[in-house]
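During data preparation, a discrete fold description was generated, and the record follows.
___
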Amino acid sequence: MVTYKDAGVDVERGYEAVRRMKQHVATTFDENVLGGLGSFGGFYSIENAVAEKPVLVAGTDGVGTKLKLAFLMDRHDTVGIDCVAMCVNDVVCQGAKPLLFLDYIATGYLDPQKVERIVAGVAEGCRQAGCALIGGETAEMPDFYPAGEYDLAGFTVGLVDRDKSISGERVAEGDVLVGIASSGVHSNGYSLVRRLVLTEDRDINAPVEVFGGKSWGETLLTPTKIYVKSALAACGAADVHGIAHITGGGFIENIPRILPEGRSAYIDLGAWPVLPVFTELQRLGGLADRQMYNTFNMGIGMVFAAAPQEADALIASLTASGEAAYRIGVVGRTGADGERLVLR
């Protein structure tokens, strides 16, 4: 007789993984979470939501090939933060407060200790974002993933009052663009990063002077910054017309997503400090500025558009929340060349 375990799936390891993760998950619960883990669905009450016209805003994302660095470094406690960040930072761009989060972990061989470290990171991300981790899925899929590897994805749902939602449709010519600092490469561009950094002659564990003594591995695994609390506070302090999360596609793809037709973003290079990790990546690859700004966040993780008279209040709020905020450009008319983002 051939058992499920003989086929590569050990349900006992799955049970142990759930037992290990419960303590971390529980730290994210608030009074709106009904029940705990174990049901077929997670319950979250919105009866106390403060919104006259409540609208749900959903988002999903993963960590991408940054996971390859986690495998190489055998460090699994930070990628969960990345997973949460990539989802909640998107949702908050609509002015929505993330309420709940779900994760999905798939692997060829389920290691309960490793899964616990991953979920501990997800729980930390949820605490930073102020949302509840109410469920997820851990799938053991033999022969589907290389040994020691896994995939990680997340899903979030937020809530906003329709009259306070942010779509970018009010962004206007003359609006000021305010950027807030990123914590590093975040979770985008790692296929290129790995191509540039993971060479036979480079020890990614060795200290690098320009990184303040941190190694390439440590620097590249720095978790994505979660902007939820500071962004929501800023939306309460100033009239924000649009918010762009600088993810895959960098400045050139993401900022135009909040611009009406006929309007372009004019970005002032030098208006903020570019992090050393980007300078080093550019040097290693001999990359042109435009390629860098079309791939990476270049030290700016989120961009706000607001009328000039709102800029001081916006920056003051972001600074009070602990963010490094910079005026990085303006919104203007699109030129004859049709470029929606101009580096100047």
